[in-house]
Sequence to fold (938 residues):
Amino acid sequence: MGVDGILGSRDSKQSKANIARRRKWVKRRETWLVILGVILHAVYMLSIFDIYFKTPIVHGMDLVSPRFSAPAKRLVLLVADGLRADKFFEPDSEGNFRAPFLRSVIMNQGRWGVSHARPPTESRPGHVAIIAGFYEDPSAVTKGWKANPVEFDSVFNRSRHTFSFGSPDIVPIFCGALPHSTWDTYPHEFEDFATDASFLDEWSFDQFQSLLNRSNDDPKLKRFLEQDNLVIFLHLLGCDSNGHAHRPFSSIYLNNVKVVDHIAERVYNLLESYYKDNRTSYIFTADHGMSDKGSHGDGHPSNTDTPLVAWGAGIKHPKPISERDHSHHGLRFVDEHLHDTPIPKEWGLHGIERVDVNQADIAPLMSTLLGLPCPVNSVGNLPLGYVDMKEEEEVEAVLANTKQILNQFLRKSQIKLSHSLYFKPFTPLAQYSSMLNQIEVSLSARDYKAAMQLSENLRSLALEGLHYFQTYDWLMLMTIITLGYIGWMIFLVLHVLQAYTSLLGYISRKEEAVRQKCNSGKVQLWGCLFMGVVSLLLSLERSPPLYHAYFAMTVFLWTQILNEYQFIKALWRDLSGRKFNYIIKLLAIGVVSVFILELLVRSFTERKLYTWCFLVVGAIASIYLYNLFPWRSGIPVFVCLTCWFLSLFTLMPAEIPDNNKLVIASGAMIIVIGFAAKWLDLHADGNKYWLGICKHEMMRQPRFHLLFYLQALLVGLSSVMVFLSTSHRTEKQELHTIHQLMNWCIAGFSIILPLFSDNGLLSRLNSIFLGFAPTFLLLSIGYEAVFYGALGLVLMAWILFEHSLLYLSKVKESPWNNWEEHVFLENDVRYLQLSDVRIPLAFMVLFNVAFFGTGNFASIASFEISSVYRFITVFSPFLMAALLIFKLFVPFMLVICAFSAMTKLVQIPRLGCYFLVILFSDVMTIHFFFLVIHLLKD
Fold:
C-alpha cells in the first residue's frame, strides 16, 4: 500500500529493524542540525555589522592644526536631551513661545536651524555625533550605549580643559578618562520617571554655578577658568525623562522646555558677568527628539529633528530673508530630509534665515570657534552659515576640515592597501595632492572663492572615499552570506524530505552505501582543500576572524549538499516521472508560499496588510468549514468572528494611547474567556467537533482542583493593581513600594502556575493563557491588553479548524487501514504531506501578527517604555528593556504553545514543522538582508 508523503505516493515497506535504525538516524541528525542552525544564524547575524555597520573609527591620523585665529576663548555646549524641534520653536496654546530667551537670541544675536540626527536616535549616538563628529559605532549597543568599545577623539579631547555636569549615562563617556576635565554627575536614583525630572536640569546648572562661585576662593580653579580653549558642557536630561514618562504633549514636558530656556539664559548672564570679554560662544541643541508616544530610536522626523541655536563670539548675527531668497535643490540630510524644508508658519521665523545642519556638523563648528583641530574621526562639514570670520579665515577653516576628513580617507586606503592582494583604489582621489596644491595656489593668489570651491569639492570626494572603503567588502560578503543562506535552506529541504517523508525509502540501501563510500569522501576532501585555499587567501589579506567563519560555514553547507547528490538525483527522477497536474500543484503551493512570505516582509512597514489578511482568511475558512459540516457546531461562526476581531488591531495606531479603563476591562474579558474554555472542557461530550481538543489525551485526575480559580483570581488582582499603580502615578506620586512588590509577586507567581495544569490540550492551553495574562496586563497601557484576548481566541480558532479537518479525514478513511505504514517516529507521528505546509505558514503569519498587532518594527523603542512603570520607575535601561522584551515575548509564547499543540493534535513531526518554519524565516531573512538601509554615506 502506498504512503502519502510530501511528494505523493510511493511504496515503502520497511522492516521493524529498518524503522528503528531510521529513528536513531533521524534523532542524531536532528540534534546535529539544531546545533548547526544555532551556530550558523549566530555567525551570519554578526555579518550585518561587517556589511552594513562596520565601525567608522580608525586610528593613526595626524591632527590638522588650524591656520586662523580662534574667534572664541571658551565655548558653552547646552544639550537638552530629548527636545523636539517643533516643541521648542512653536508657541503654546495661548500664543506665547516656550523659549523666550533663546527666541530673542534667534531674533537679535545669533543663528538658528534644525540639527538632523541619524538613527539610532538614542542619547549616546546623538552626543557622539555632536561632540566627536561621527555617527556612532553600532557595536556600542552591546555595552548599552554607555562604554566605548573603541576609543575615539572628540572636541573635549582637544580642549585645554572641559567642565561637564549632567547624567551619569552621558558625561563619563567623554570625561571619564579625560585627565584635563572637571565633571560630576547625579546618582542614577535621581532618574525617577514617577517625578518631574526638570530638577535634573537645575542640578546641572547649580553645579556649574557653584563651580564659578568657588573660583573666587580657589586661585587654581580661577586660573583654569581664565585659560583659553575651554569647553563647558551641561547635559540637561529633564525633557527626555519627562517625555518618556508623560509624553511630549504633556504639560510637564512642555514646561521643561521653559526650564531649559531659563537655564540657558542664566548660564549666559552668569558667564557674561564673570568674564566681561565677549569671547564666549554658546551652542544650544538636542541629541534627539521624542515621538508622540514618548519613545525614540527610529528615523521619524519627531526623533531626528532637533533645535540648534548658536550665538556669541564667532557666530554670525541673524540674516533677514524673503521668500525669493530660498534656493531649491535635491540635497538631503542624514535623516533623508531635504535641504530648504519650509519653515512651519506657527514657528513665526519666516523672516530670519534658517541654517540646517547634520548633527555631526556641530563638532567642526565647535572646533573652529575655539581654533582647535577637528576631532580626527569627524565626518562633519563645517556649517559656514554660523561662522562669523573673515573670508580668508573661512577658507582656512574649511580647508582644515577638508584635510582632517582626507586624512581619514588616506589612512583607510593605506590600511586596505596593506591588507589586500588585489587592491582597488578610489580613483576620483588618485590626484588628491594636486588638488591640495591647487587650493594653496588659489589661497596665495587671494582667489578665495576658487579656493573655497576646490576645498568643498575635495571634502565631498573624501567623504565619498570614506564610504567607498567603509563598504569595500560589501559585494564579497553579501555574496558569500547569500550563498550560505541558500545552502542552508536547500540542506533543510533535503533533511525534511529524508527524515519526515516516505521519499527516502525510494532510494535503495545499496545506492546509499555506494554513495557514502564513493562520493562522500571525495566531496569532503575537495571541500576541505577549497576551504584551505580560501583561508590562506583571507589570512594573507589579514581579514577578520569572522570572515573565515562566513566562508567556512558556506563551504561546509554546500559540501553537505553535494554529499546528497544521489538523493537529489533520485528526487529529480521522481519529479520527472510525475504527471503534469502534480507539477502544477507543487508550483502553485510554492508560489502561494512565497507570496505569503513576501506579504509578511511587506507587513513590516504596512501593518494594515494583516487586517485584509484576517478578513479574507476568516471569510474563506468559515465558508470552507460550512461546506463540510453544519453551522450548529458553532465552529464556522467562531472562526470567522475571531479572525475579524483580530483584524481590527492592525488598524489601530502603533502609538498606543493610554487607556487604563480598557486594560482593566481586558482583565474581565480574559477571565470570561478562561471560564468559557473551562466550561467547554467540562461539557464537550455532546459536541463531537470540540471533543478532540478537550480530551486529546487520556485525562488523569486533576492534580490541583483550584488551579484554574487561582489563576482567574490573579488576573482579577492584576487588574486591580493596574488601577492602583496608575492612579498614584497620575497624581505625580512615586510608585508605592508595596504596589511595586505586589506587581512583581503577581507576575512571577502567575507565570509558574501553568506548569501544574492538567494534561488535556484545552485545559493546558487555557492555563497558559491565564498564566501569562497578569504579567501582560501589568505591562499594558491601552488596547494591547484586548489584543491579548483576541489573539488567544484566534489561536483557538486555528486549532479548531485543523481539528475539524482531521476529524473529517478520519471519518472518510478507515483508521486502521495500513496504519503502521503511516508511522515511523514515536507517539504515532505520521509522515509529512504536501498539504501540511499550511501549518508552518499559518504559524509564521500568527507569529508576526503577535508582534505587529500592537506596534511596528522600528526598534524596541517603538513600544511604550511607560509599560514598565508599574514595576520600576528609576531609570535602568537593561531591566526596562528586559521587561519590554518579555512583554513582546508573551504573545509569541501563546503562538508557540498553540503550534506545539497543533502538531500533537494532527500527529505530524513537531521538529519537522519547526524546520519548515526556519526555512520560511530564512527566505524572509534573505529579503531583509538586501533591505537594510545603508546609512554610512553622508
Observations:
- The chain has a mean pLDDT of 83.
- The first strand starts at residue 2 and ends at 5.
- The CA atoms of residues 714 and 746 lie 7 Å apart.
